[in-house]
Design goal:
- The protein is mainly β.
- Helices cover 12% and strands 33% of the residues.
- The chain is built from eight helices and 44 strands.
- Helix 1 packs across helix 2 (229-240).
- The longest helix has 16 residues, at 83-98.
- The protein is globular, with a radius of gyration of 26 Å.
């Protein structure tokens, strides 16, 4: 089962600090109210949204493992895992981040703590298997950080957590447990807003919804409530250094695994589970971007043996993202690099510089109703290795997961209904709200140490025909090889678009999903073709002479996969002429399974399409179990396929 690793983003404001549940494609975020400007909303100020980081003076970051539950609880059987063995796996997860040669982050387990309660803000970076029973959601683990809300100067003897013990010393230059009482003291001096002072990582072992944590790779299995501790720890400690969740859950046509910081964890697929132990280029890039090696002559950021200077291994892609319908800079659009030579999904970023509102009287944080106040710009920067790339943008729209699982910037964009565009590629001088070929991707070349700028994207203004509701199921478990799903788009729906004026048929969208995250979502073919619906409920679909085809169609997992049509202008003219002549009654989108079995993956199940049975079953979905020879209407559900149109280019 695909499980959520960390919880929905929340912020609890305090006088000096903010506590947030952490969510790389960008940063986990807090706010900065240093010199906060007044808002147009009375009684509120603008709180600048910023990423959180560890200060260099806190490195190495020191963790302690709670030893009050030993052996560690096992909610589905007898306890077997000792704190000592768990600590070894936890440090292995930390070392995955420590070993990045272009990043100076360093996280170390330095001992234990005997906290009989739950972890909280106490200046002890605690790793614990004690978890509140009222989480309210089946979380595997979560990471919580406490960071400064404003620039601050810490003075010798200051008590940050108000426990009667000094937490600041002018006698040290690196954070340490000076008085040997188990918590950390910090060097006196100035610290920037967003500086992390406390991080706790909690693993869920609750009886009702917790997990059995294993440490040996051979113990990874298909048990739903069992999970590899090192893999989960690697993900959670990514949050601990300030990394956000990413949408990358499929590397390429040959590798179905995704980035470590993808938030859903497939506990039924051992290969996918164990893959989270290893970092993706996105994870490596952002750990390096936030903590870049070679940016100082002394201290943690200075080059040591084995280190690699960040600028010798990465360059930047930068630009702005704008909404083609709203004519606004977009907050929280997901802009991703794709290796032009291999097709592998690479590093991504969330667009936008944003503000929240802070109530002066209560300290409550909220959204500004003024878009120009809330969204400063739609800028983005993506750290990537030298190479050639395609740049794609997609919305954070709930597929594969929603804005609440990332950060405030994405939530702000969603608040203003900006996460409602169709994914597309940057295509240079043809970039506009109305484009003929949104799948056309121009080359973006990046050199290490340099910025490739001006990669500005305007999302498309489109019409779509989507004869379905919310997904209620996915596929059929017993689907044979070459099974074909088809959806009809009647000529009457097509001609009614754009008030009856001509349109350009740009793409099809298929809602697709895989049972196993370790294998790519690969279909045998995707087609746009023609056909007729017979009175008996069958359909005659022209599988041999499609208008557009893609053989070996790489779809997406838990998302809508675009099928961009070549020569959209010529295609649209052909369709218009055929409808006018009566030779085209329906267009059909067809998605066909591969023609060989067994299907890859531990479950042996085929890739599937999303389906709905609410609010209405339209009778436009057809299924063929004989390789596309006979299509029978499904009167019980709609297949979630869309046709995408635009106005003609002016």
């Amino acid at each position: 089962m695909k499980r959520l690793l960390t919880s929905i983003f929340t912020i609890t404001c305090m006088l000096l600090m903010s506590v947030g549940v952490t969510r790389a494609g960008g940063a986990f975020e807090s706010i900065d109210i240093t010199n906060a400007a007044p808002s147009s909303v009375p009684g509120h100020v603008l709180a600048r949204v910023i990423g959180i980081r560890w200060d260099k003076r806190s490195i190495p970051v020191q963790y302690r493992v709670n030893n009050t539950l030993d052996p560690i609880p096992n909610p589905i059987g007898a306890p077997f895992l000792s704190v000592a063995d768990a600590t070894t796996a936890l440090q292995a997860g930390l070392n995955t981040w420590n070993d990045i040669p272009t990043s100076f982050i360093n996280l170390q387990i330095t001992g234990t703590t005997s906290n009989p309660g739950f972890a909280g803000f106490d200046l002890v970076n605690e790793v614990t298997f004690r978890t509140e029973t009222d989480l309210g959601i089946d979380l595997i683990a979560l990471s919580l950080s406490t960071s400064l809300l404003r620039d601050a100067t810490l003075r010798d003897g200051q008590d940050l957590d108000r426990d009667g013990d000094s937490d600041v010393s002018s006698a040290i230059t690196t954070a340490a447990d000076v008085d040997n009482d188990g918590d950390i003291e910090f060097p006196a001096g100035s610290y920037k807003a967003g500086t992390i002072f406390d991080n706790d990582v909690r693993f869920n072992t609750n009886t009702a919804n917790g997990f059995r944590f294993t440490v040996d790779a051979t113990q990874a299995d298909t048990e739903d409530q069992s999970v590899d501790l090192q893999a989960v720890a690697t993900h959670e400690f990514g949050h601990s250094i300030g990394l956000a969740h990413v949408l990358n859950n499929q590397h390429s046509a040959t590798d179905g695994t995704g980035a470590t910081m993808f938030p859903l964890f497939d506990t039924d697929d051992p290969a996918a589970e164990l893959s989270v132990r290893s970092l993706d280029i996105d994870d490596i890039a952002y750990a390096s971007y936030f903590y870049p090696e070679g940016t100082a002559t002394s201290g943690p950021a200075a080059l040591q043996p084995g280190d690699v200077e960040f600028t010798s291994a990465f360059g930047l892609i930068s630009g702005e993202l704008r909404h083609g319908v709203l004519n606004q800079p977009i907050a929280g659009g997901y802009v991703q690099s794709i290796d032009r030579d291999t097709g592998e999904e690479g590093v991504a970023a969330y667009s936008g510089t944003t503000n929240l509102l802070l109530n002066r009287a209560t300290g409550a944080v909220s959204f500004s109703p003024n878009v120009s106040e809330a969204i400063v710009n739609g800028n983005y920067s993506i750290p990537v290795p030298q190479g050639n790339y395609k740049v794609r943008v997609e919305p954070v729209d709930g597929s594969p997961f929603g804005p609440g699982s990332i950060n405030s910037t994405v939530l702000i964009g969603n608040f203003f209904d900006q996460q409602n565009f169709i994914e597309e590629f940057w295509n240079n001088n043809k970039e506009a709200a109305v484009e003929r070929e949104p799948g056309d991707a121009k080359n973006v070349h990046v050199n290490n140490g340099l910025i490739t700028g001006g990669i500005n994207i305007v999302t498309n203004r489109v019409f779509n025909i989507s004869n379905f509701g919310q997904r209620t199921s996915a596929g059929f478990a017993n689907s044979p090889a070459s099974c074909a799903y088809a959806v009809a788009f009647p000529a009457s729906q097509i001609t009614a678009l754009n008030d009856g004026k001509p349109t350009i048929i740009q793409a099809g969208l298929f809602d697709t999903v895989n049972a196993d995250r370790s294998v790519p979502v690969m279909f045998g073919k995707a087609l746009l073709t023609t056909g007729v619906i017979n009175p008996d409920g069958t359909a005659e679909i022209d599988m041999l002479h499609p208008l557009a085809s893609s053989i070996g169609f790489l779809a997406q997992d838990e998302d809508f996969a675009p099928f961009y049509f070549p020569d959209p202008k010529e295609l649209s003219e052909t369709v218009r002429a055929g409808i006018a002549a009566g030779t085209i009654q329906n267009l059909f989108l067809v998605l066909q399974l591969p023609d060989t079995t067994p299907f890859p993956g531990i479950s042996g199940l085929p890739p599937a399409v999303g389906m709905s049975n609410t609010p209405t079953v339209f009778g436009l979905s057809f299924l063929s179990n004989d390789g596309g020879l006979t299509f029978t209407r499904r009167n019980d559900r709609n297949f979630r396929f869309s046709l995408i149109f635009s106005e003609p280019e002016k």
